[in-house]
Design goal:
The structure is a single chain. With 131 residues, the chain is α+β, with helices and mostly antiparallel strands. Helices cover 17% and strands 27% of the residues. The chain has one domain: Alpha-Beta Plaits (2-Layer Sandwich), CATH 3.30.70. It has a six-stranded antiparallel beta barrel.
């Protein structure tokens, strides 16, 4: 099972979009670690994945439109079922309007060491996520 996991995520990239709407996106750097969290409250996109930095500020969303998904990356809809509550991402490239991130993990529990328990509780409350 672990081998299958490694095959799926070895070269899985997503486009981060909506950067111009979030101040925190101005702080993006190549190599920065981010967390993608399923946004169950999103009225406009049932497959929405919000992306936050280590300070829990929103930097954008995983792109889910053919107009915003950069060629060679997967849309939020394509990776949504592979993720449990969310995933751990790493910024690989940054453009003016978007960024490309590599999916490092398919389960937010893999990144609990990255965040303290109070921060995780705030995320669960903010996005109405049941643990």
């Amino acid at each position: 099972m672990e081998e299958l996991y490694e095959e799926i995520y070895e070269d899985l990239y997503v486009t981060l979009t909506g950067l111009k709407h979030y101040e925190a996106s101005k702080l993006l750097e190549i190599g920065m670690k981010l967390i993608g969290i399923k946004d169950y409250k999103n009225k406009y996109d049932q497959d929405a994945i919000v992306v936050v930095n280590e300070d829990m500020y929103i930097v954008g969303y995983v792109a889910n439109s053919p107009y915003t998904v950069i060629k060679g990356t997967k849309s939020a809809g394509r990776i949504y079922d592979y993720l449990n509550l969310g995933g751990y991402l790493e910024v690989m490239f940054i453009t003016k309007d978007s960024a490309i991130c590599k999916v490092l993990s398919s389960d937010i529990s893999d990144v609990l060491d990255f965040l303290d328990s109070t921060t995780m509780e705030n995320i669960f409350n903010e996005f109405n996520i049941d643990d």
